[in-house]
Write a structure and sequence with these properties.
The protein has a single domain (about 1-164), classed as Gcn5-related N-acetyltransferase (GNAT) (Aminopeptidase), CATH 3.40.630.30. It is built from four helices and six strands; from the N terminus they run H-H-E-E-E-H-E-H-E-E. It has helices spanning about 1-5, 25-35, 95-110, 125-135, and strands at about 45-50, 65-70, 80-90, 115-120, 140-150, 155-164. It binds coenzyme A.
Length: about 160
């Protein structure tokens, strides 16, 4: 929720088509995906970047600063592919955490025998597109004017894929 609220703020690119989501819905969806084996449509897995509390406050909860997740296809015939998404809170960006998180997700996808990882990224999101290109993703489609945001912005979407 904190991360989504940062979309388009403080000079950073907009990266999500929605900024308001229900916490309970997100938790329920994650639990449903994470409980499924990779042989079942709708599976999901996630990795998080966690900041541990200082040793002076050992009882504080660790803070999640970023995540990468993989979502399997919703149909059996698409289970050789997964869709990747990633995001870090503002203070955690620019320190190679995004690269390492994405590499962790891709390593899992390779070890699981997936054939492709796909993703969608707003065309204007230069940092994310540069990260994906660095990882070997290639652009396969561009959908102009896919989203119209509340502030009137028209968002073009780029679809990318990586053959593993
Ligand atoms: C995209 C995002 C995950 C990158 O993570 P990060 O930890 O900041 O990036 P890293 O430090 O790991 O950088 C890895 C590579 O990404 C690219 N990159 C990262 N930040 C960049 C920036 N501001 N400008 C241009 N390229 C950038 C570079 O290729 C960089 O490699 P280099 O340092 O050798 O040039 C992060 O900016 C983020 O969470 N953004 C908001 C959410 C978002 O846009 N998610 C993607 C939605 S599709």
């Amino acid at each position: 929720m904190r991360h989504l609220a940062e979309s388009g703020r403080d000079g950073a690119p907009t990266f999500a088509p929605v900024t308001l989501v229900s916490h309970d819905d997100v938790v329920a969806q994650c639990e449903r995906r994470w409980a499924l084996p990779l042989s079942e449509p709708g599976w999901g897995r996630a990795w998080v970047l966690v900041e541990r509390p200082p040793t002076t406050y050992p009882n504080d909860r660790p803070k999640v600063l970023g995540h990468v997740d993989l979502r399997g296809s919703l149909v059996h015939s698409g289970l050789h592919r997964a869709e990747l998404s990633i995001g870090l809170e503002l203070p955690a960006r620019g320190a190679r955490h995004g690269l390492r998180l994405a590499q962790a997700g891709l390593a899992f996808a390779r070890s699981a025998g997936l054939a492709y990882v796909d993703l969608k990224v707003f065309a204007h999101n230069a940092p994310a597109r540069a990260l994906y290109e660095k990882l070997g993703f290639i652009e396969i489609a561009r959908i102009d004017d896919l989203f119209r945001m509340p502030d009137g912005a028209r968002i073009d979407d780029v679809w990318m894929t990586l053959a593993l």
